[in-house]
Write a structure and sequence with these properties.
This protein has helices at about 1-15, 30-35, 55-80, 80-95, 95-105, 155-165, 180-195, 225-235, 245-250, 285-295, 305-310, 315-320, 325-330, 335-340, 355-365, 385-390, 480-485, and strands spanning about 20, 45, 50, 55, 125-135, 140-145, 195, 205, 210-215, 240-245, 255, 260-265, 265-275, 300, 345-350, 370, 380, 400-405, 410-415, 420-440, 440-455, 470, 475. It is α+β, with helices and mostly antiparallel strands and about 475 residues long. Helix 3 crosses helix 14, helix 4 (about 80-95) runs antiparallel to helix 5 (about 95-105) and helix 6 packs antiparallel against helix 7. The strands form 6 sheets. Strands 3, 5, 6, 19, 20, 21 and 22 form a 7-stranded antiparallel sheet that branches. Strands 9, 10, 11, 12, 13 and 14 form a 6-stranded mixed sheet that branches. Strands 15-18-16-17 form a 4-stranded antiparallel sheet, sandwiched between helices. The chain contains 17 helices and 23 strands.
Length: about 475
C-alpha cells in the first residue's frame, strides 16, 4: 500500500510538472508546432522509478570528469574524414544504412540541386556518454557515446527534481541535474553564432526571426522532452523553434543562393536532429532528400553527418584499438588514459581479428553482446542468441562484439502505464555534454547533466522510449558503504 501511495504521488507530480510522454500517436509535427496542445491529449506520466537508485559516488564523479574527454574524442574523430571512412568501411559494406550516410558525407549532394556543400558550417554536438558499473571489477565501463538524438535531457532533469521533492531527507545525496538548461543553452548559443556568407566578401549576422529546426519523427511519443527544450530556449534566450519531419523538409524547404535553408518562410539557423538515427526514419527517398537538403545548406547541424558517424559502434570499437586514440589525440593527451580506463572489451568482426573474436564468443556467449550500427534500443543481440549469427558468418562486418557488463542489482519500484511494479533492476548512467565549433574554434565545451535509466534485471535492452527501462536518478553513496550494502 505504501508503494502504491508513492506511485500515485509520483504520477501526480509527473503530470503537474510535465514529466510526461504521449501514450498514443501524436499529430504530425507541424501541427504540433503550431498548436502545442494538438496531439498531446493522450499525455501520461513518463515511466519512472518512484525513488532514486543508489549509485557509487566515485563512479559518478569519474563519469562527469569524462564529459570533456568524450567531447574531444568525438569532435576530433568527426574532423578526421579519412579516419571516419576507414573505420566505418567494413560496416558500410554490409549495412545499407551506414552506406547511405557514408555516401552523403563523401558526396554531399542535394538530389534536386545537385550542389556540393561548400559552405562554412558550424558544428554543434549534444552527446550522451552511457556507462555501467561492472560488479566484478567495481569499475566504470563505457557502454557507448550517443552523438545523434541524445534524448531525455529534459525529462531526466524533471525526474531528478521529482526525486528531490518526494525524498527530501536524501536531497544532499542527490546531485542537481542541469541537463535541460545545458542543452537549451547550447542550442541557443549555436543559433546566435549563426552567420551567413553573402558571397560578396560580407557576412550577414543572425536575424532575430531565424529559427532552430527540430527534425522529428511523424508520430513522436517523446514530444514533451523536446517541447521542454524549445520552451527553455524561448524563455531564457528568446530563440524560436519549429518542428518538421524529414519528408516535410524535402517537400516544403528550399535553399537560397547563399546556402540558407528556408522552411515556412523562416530561415533555419540550427537543425537539431531528434530523428534520422534509424533506417525506420527513412521509409522512402523523400526522407533522404530532406537529410541531404540540410547537409547541403549552411545550417549548423546537431549533429552533422560526420559527427553522426563518429558515434557509430564501429568507431567506438576502433577507438579501443591500441594506438588509435593516441593517433587521433596525440601521445601526450590526458584524454587517452582517461578514456581507456573505462573501455569495455571490444572486438572487430572483420579482417584479421574476426576469427579470434568469433572463437572467444562461441566459447562463452553469455559474456558478450553483438552490436549492429543502430541507435534507439532493441537492436543488440545477447547471450545464446548470438550463436546463429556467429555460426552463419554472414554480414559480421556490420556488427562489433562487446564484453557484456553486469552491474549490481537493486530492488526498484517502477511506475509505468499507471502501474507500480517492484523488481530486481540494474542501472545505466548517461552523462550529457555539449560542444560548439565555429571556424575551427571551440566556443562551447562542457558537461551539462546526467540521466539514470533503470531496467528489470531480466531485460537485455535499456531504452526508455523503446519500452525497456524507466527514468531514474542517482542516490550517491560512498564506495565502501555502497559495495557493503549489496
Amino acid at each position: 500500500k505504501a508503494t502504491m501511495g508513492c506511485g500515485m504521488e509520483a504520477s501526480q507530480w509527473a503530470l503537474l510538472h510535465g514529466l510526461a510522454v504521449s501514450s498514443g500517436s501524436s499529430s504530425t509535427s507541424q501541427n504540433a508546432s503550431a498548436n502545442p496542445g494538438c496531439g498531446l491529449e493522450q499525455a501520461t506520466p513518463a515511466p519512472v522509478s518512484i525513488r532514486p537508485t543508489p549509485f557509487p559516488k566515485k563512479a559518478f564523479q569519474q563519469a562527469k570528469r569524462l564529459a570533456h574527454s568524450a567531447n574531444v574524442a568525438m569532435r576530433t574523430a568527426a574532423n578526421k574524414k579519412e579516419f571516419l571512412l576507414e573505420a566505418v568501411a567494413p560496416a558500410a559494406e554490409h549495412d545499407p544504412f551506414t552506406k547511405r550516410l557514408v555516401d552523403l558525407l563523401v558526396q554531399g549532394d542535394d538530389p534536386q540541386a545537385n550542389q556540393p556543400n561548400t559552405w562554412k558550417k558550424n558544428r554543434l554536438g549534444v552527446l550522451r556518454a552511457d556507462y555501467m558499473v561492472d560488479q566484478a571489477t567495481k569499475s566504470l565501463l563505457q557502454v557507448e557515446i550517443n552523438t545523434i538524438a541524445s534524448s531525455f535531457a529534459a525529462l531526466a532533469t524533471r525526474t531528478s527534481e521529482m526525486h528531490r521533492t518526494l525524498n527530501r531527507k536524501d536531497q544532499e545525496h542527490m546531485p542537481v541535474n542541469d541537463a535541460l538548461e545545458g542543452v537549451a543553452d547550447a542550442l541557443a548559443t549555436a543559433a546566435m553564432a549563426y552567420q551567413v556568407d553573402e558571397g560578396n566578401g560580407e557576412v550577414g549576422g543572425k536575424d532575430p526571426k531565424d529559427v532552430v529546426l527540430f527534425v522529428v519523427q511523424p508520430h513522436e511519443r517523446n514530444i514533451f522532452d523536446q517541447l521542454w527544450i524549445a520552451d527553455r530556449m524561448w524563455e531564457l534566450h528568446r530563440v524560436s523553434t519549429i518542428r518538421a519531419t524529414l519528408k516535410e523538409i524535402a517537400d516544403e524547404s528550399r535553399l537560397d543562393e547563399n546556402g540558407s535553408l528556408w522552411l515556412n518562410g523562416k530561415r533555419v539557423s540550427v537543425a537539431y536532429f531528434r530523428a534520422g538515427y534509424s533506417p525506420d526514419d527513412y521509409p522512402s527517398e523523400k526522407e533522404w532528400e530532406g537529410r541531404a537538403r540540410i547537409h547541403t545548406s549552411n545550417v549548423c547541424e546537431c549533429p552533422d553527418v560526420a559527427l553522426h558517424l563518429a558515434g557509430t559502434k564501429k568507431v567506438q570499437q576502433m577507438l579501443a584499438v591500441p594506438g588509435t586514440l593516441e593517433g587521433l589525440l596525440g601521445e601526450e593527451s590526458p584524454h587517452v588514459d582517461a578514456l581507456r580506463e573505462c573501455f569495455a572489451g571490444l572486438w572487430s568482426l572483420d579482417g584479421l581479428q574476426e576469427t579470434e573474436a568469433v572463437e572467444i564468443a562461441l566459447a562463452n556467449p553469455k559474456q558478450f553482446v553483438l552490436k549492429p550500427q543502430r541507435e534507439g534500443g532493441g537492436n543488440n543481440i545477447y547471450g545464446e542468441d548470438i550463436l546463429p549469427v556467429l555460426h552463419s558468418r554472414k554480414g559480421l562486418g556490420g556488427y562489433i562484439l562487446m564484453q557484456r557488463i553486469f552491474p549490481p542489482l537493486h530492488r526498484t519500484p517502477m511506475l509505468r502505464n499507471g502501474k507500480v511494479r517492484e523488481v530486481d533492476a540494474v542501472s545505466e548512467l548517461g552523462i550529457y555534454s555539449v560542444f560548439l565549433e565555429k571556424d575551427g574554434q571551440v566556443l562551447v565545451d562542457e558537461g551539462v547533466g546526467h540521466l539514470l535509466r533503470t531496467k528489470a534485471a531480466e531485460s537485455d535492452e535499456g531504452g526508455v522510449a523503446a519500452g525497456f527501462a524507466v527514468l531514474d536518478s542517482p542516490l550517491l553513496v560512498e564506495d565502501e558503504a555502497y559495495w557493503a550494502s549489496l
